[in-house]
Amino acid sequence: MPTPADTTMWTSVELEQIGDAEEIQLTSRRSDGTLRRYVTMWVVRVGDSLYVRSAYGPDNPWFVRAKASATGRVRAGGVERDISFAVAPADVVVGIDAAYRAKYERYGRTIVGHVTRPHAHAVTIRLLPVEADAQSGSVRPSPEKPERDLP
Length: 151
Fold this sequence. Notes:
By secondary structure, this protein is of the alpha+beta class. It has one domain (about 5-130): Pnp Oxidase, Chain A (Roll), CATH 2.30.110. Helices cover about 25% and strands about 25% of the residues. The protein starts with 11 loop residues before the first helix and ends with a strand.
């Protein structure tokens, strides 16, 4: 997983556009640097950080690939940015739960429960912005149709 030295900070515009988006598109990178298919996920903002959770647990293929690659890309609210995936600090999981409930509760407690129950804490990923890799050049386009990782 990346360290803070490997990342840059989100701009206030990026935080707003991604954090306010109802759904985001996320992808991880393959070992050859190409992007996998995008998945649709919920995102929450806590402070100046953005978080996602695997609604289907630690064995979800998207989650497994994201952890393994540690890098990917996000699309939301007009922003498209290279990112890294980091472990969420333990001291923010309660705030993340509250942010999910506040943003998505209208979908019902059962659905939101997939990402707010205690087991979801272990599948929480912090999204960190990174500068594009100058050696790899432009990112190859991914397939258009996203997969869904919502409850």
